[in-house]
Q: What sequence folds into this?
């Protein structure tokens, strides 16, 4: 018998484990498969800023299944249709962008739950249910979904505790680039004022009992965020790693 998949990421997140991740924007099944074998706890598949539509996400999820990294999908928007489609493709953990109010957080959670607890549409033969071969999918699906909401503005931070209190929200993720822009520091996420808010925000999130997450672009920042109390941290972006390595090779070749 084929059982419905369980969400190891959610289980470890709620247990308070530190989860080290990598942000993927190349939308390549080849690089995805390779990176899934490196040992990261989670891989983020971005459809908001990366040039990939949801139709291209399922091959990425299939490629990531080669390794043990848990996949996380960021839909392009907090939209119940986009969320439904990502879940049907087998995503169990979603990062919902640009949430600013508890009502928006509640709408995101409802989009991930079947009626009567939510508004997710019902389909039988999807990758999520192993194409209809699992007898228990609809009994366990809701409890295995992990909802992470992304706070990206000062408006969102002003309502952080209200958003974290929404039932079904499992984690709060901070986007440093958009937050710094919201604070008047466009493209300056390392500005002292921004860093102060980021450290303070980790404490606020942890005080709500929810997991705190954030995106770093290098290992030094990732370690700092972990020390501040962020529990699930993406340490870099795949495209950035590729460019940095390529620039290094070119510089070495030129002597």
A:
């Amino acid at each position: 018998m084929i059982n419905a998949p369980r969400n190891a990421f959610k289980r470890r997140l709620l247990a308070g484990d530190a989860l080290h991740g990598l942000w993927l924007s190349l939308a390549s099944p080849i690089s995805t498969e390779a990176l899934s074998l490196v040992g990261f706890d989670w891989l983020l598949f971005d459809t908001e800023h990366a040039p990939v539509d949801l139709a291209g996400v399922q091959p990425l999820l299939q490629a990531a299944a080669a390794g043990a990294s848990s996949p996380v999908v960021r839909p392009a928007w907090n939209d119940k249709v986009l969320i439904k489609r990502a879940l049907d493709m087998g995503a169990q953990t979603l990062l919902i962008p640009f949430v600013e109010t508890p009502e928006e957080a509640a709408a995101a959670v409802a989009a991930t739950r079947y009626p009567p607890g939510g508004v997710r549409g019902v389909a039988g033969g999807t990758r999520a249910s192993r194409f209809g071969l699992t007898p228990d999918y609809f009994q366990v699906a809701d409890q295995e979904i992990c909802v992470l909401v992304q706070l990206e503005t000062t408006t969102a931070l002003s309502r952080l505790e209200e958003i974290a209190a929404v039932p079904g929200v499992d984690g709060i993720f901070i986007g440093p680039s958009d937050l710094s822009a919201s604070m008047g520091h466009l493209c300056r996420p390392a500005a002292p004022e921004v860093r102060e808010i980021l450290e303070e925000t980790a404490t606020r999130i942890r005080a709500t009992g929810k997991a705190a997450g954030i995106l770093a672009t290098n290992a030094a920042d990732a370690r700092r965020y972990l020390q501040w109390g962020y529990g699930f941290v993406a340490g870099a972006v795949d495209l950035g790693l590729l460019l940095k390595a390529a620039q290094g090779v070119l510089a070495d070749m030129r002597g």
